[in-house]
Amino acid sequence: MNATGMQNKVRAGSAARVTPETPMVFEWQDRQIAVFNIEGRFCALDNLCPHKEAPLVDGKPVFEAGQMWVSCPWHRFLFDPATGRCDRSGFDTRAYPVTIEAGELYVWVC
């Protein structure tokens, strides 16, 4: 939340740039945020894995245990793209809502 208790709507870039094969990273303040297109649904996570700071943007979407995950490229930790929950205890990351307006992606950060 910002000083007024609101989330910040941050333009991340063109939705056309983010395909299932090509996620993107943008910076906001001191954060790197990865944006993914998973089966046509856009989601955003902190880019650095909380385990060893691997770039999640280099990970792949995987279907496991009945749901879609983003896989860490180094140690295969799995992250729920909607919530940031990790399949291993103690390693959750931040997830951010994403909206599309006039073909542009906006990530809601606090």
Can you offer a commentary on this structure?
The protein has strands spanning about 10-15, 25-30, 30-40, 40-45, 60-65, 65-70, 80, 95, 100, 105-110. The mean pLDDT is about 95. By secondary structure, it is mainly β. The chain is about 0% helix and about 45% strand. A hairpin with a 2-residue loop joins strand 9 (about 100) and strand 10. The chain has no helices and ten strands. The radius of gyration is 13 Å and the shape is globular. The termini are close together. The chain has a four-stranded antiparallel sheet, with no helix packed on it. A three-stranded antiparallel sheet has the order 1-10-9, with no helix packed on it. The chain has one domain (about 10-110): Rieske Iron-sulfur Protein (3-layer Sandwich).
Overall helicity: under 10%
What would you call the structural class?
mainly beta
What gyration radius follows from the Cα positions, in whole Å? 13 Å
CATH level-four homologous superfamily name: Rieske [2Fe-2S] iron-sulphur domain
Instruction: Report the uncertain regions.
Output: none
| Largest beta-sheet details | 4 strands, antiparallel
Q: Can you tell me the CATH class?
A: Mainly Beta
Mean pLDDT: 93
Integer count of domains: 1
CATH topology: Rieske Iron-sulfur Protein
Number of helices: 0
Spatial strand sequence of the major β-sheet:
2-3-4-8
Strand content of the residues, in percent? Answer: 35-45%
Q: Any idea what the shape is? A: globular
By DSSP, the count of extended strands is: 10
Cα-to-Cα separation, first versus last residue: 4 Å
CATH 2nd-level architecture:
3-layer Sandwich
Pattern of helices and strands? EEEEEEEEEE
Domain Rieske: 13-107
GO molecular function, one term: 2 iron, 2 sulfur cluster binding
Protein name: Gll0366 protein
InterPro entries: Rieske_2Fe-2S, Rieske_2Fe-2S_sf
